[in-house]
Design goal:
It is built from two helices and twelve strands. With 213 residues, it is mostly beta strands. It has an eight-stranded antiparallel beta barrel. A two-stranded antiparallel ribbon has the order 10-11. The protein is elongated, with a radius of gyration of 19 Å.
Length: 213
């Protein structure tokens, strides 16, 4: 799965270009939206080696950042490639978890619908699917399938510039009874987390500036 890391953005971008779109040449535009945010939630149901559930290991709420690349299908919809990152720690008293930095990346492809409301404000709804990359400092990376649902408001200030504020929920599928963030050394292996959960949830609020070309 790690081999996908370098190919995901290129594949998704190629899909955007190749999908047939309606004739609307004057408005088939690209858009880039850098954003900052704050992400909450995320926990693993931790088990011991005997498979007995002990507790929930939660992630600390923390800031996030990312970028959204868009290609307009028409004036009310666009395809998008979304990347969002948060680096935080486990909110846990266990010394094996408490001092570990965990980076969670969402690499998602999907689309957004814009709803005509007022000239100065446009509500939107976004749906994406893709991958979640977990990277625990000193314990390697894990990739899992995920999806997201987002909504918010766009406030155009010109034809090329808009302020964007939104919220998004992410759900990541994790197989039950799975060991995550495993390393080996000296002939022995160890895993940071042994989880019994099925879905990893996080919520994110963001503010960004969209620049259209």
């Amino acid at each position: 799965m790690r081999a996908l890391k370098g190919w995901i953005p290129g594949i998704a971008f190629a899909i955007i270009i190749l999908i047939p779109v309606q004739t609307w040449a004057d408005n088939r535009r690209f858009e880039i939206t850098p954003f900052g945010g704050y992400r909450i939630g995320g926990d693993f149901d931790v088990e011991d080696e005997q498979g007995v559930e002990l507790r929930s290991a939660d992630l600390e709420d923390d800031v996030s950042w990312g970028i959204d690349l868009a290609y307009y299908r028409d004036r009310n919809a666009f395809y998008e490639l979304l990347f969002s990152r948060q680096t935080t720690q486990f909110d846990d008293n266990d010394p094996e978890l408490g001092g570990v930095d965990l980076t969670t990346d969402y690499i998602q492809f999907g689309g957004t619908l814009l709803f005509d409301s007022e000239p100065w404000i446009l509500p939107y709804l976004s749906l994406t699917i893709g991958l979640t990359r977990f990277d625990a400092d000193g314990f390697g990376s894990e990739y899992q399938f995920s999806g997201s649902l987002g909504a918010g408001l766009r406030m155009p200030v010109s034809d090329r510039l808009s302020f964007v504020a939104g919220v998004r929920g992410y759900g990541t599928l994790i197989n039950s009874d799975t060991e995550l963030f495993c390393v080996s050394g000296g002939g022995q292996g160890s895993c940071l987390v042994q989880t019994s959960g099925d879905i990893f949830f996080q919520g994110e609020a963001t503010i960004g500036v969209a620049v259209r070309f």
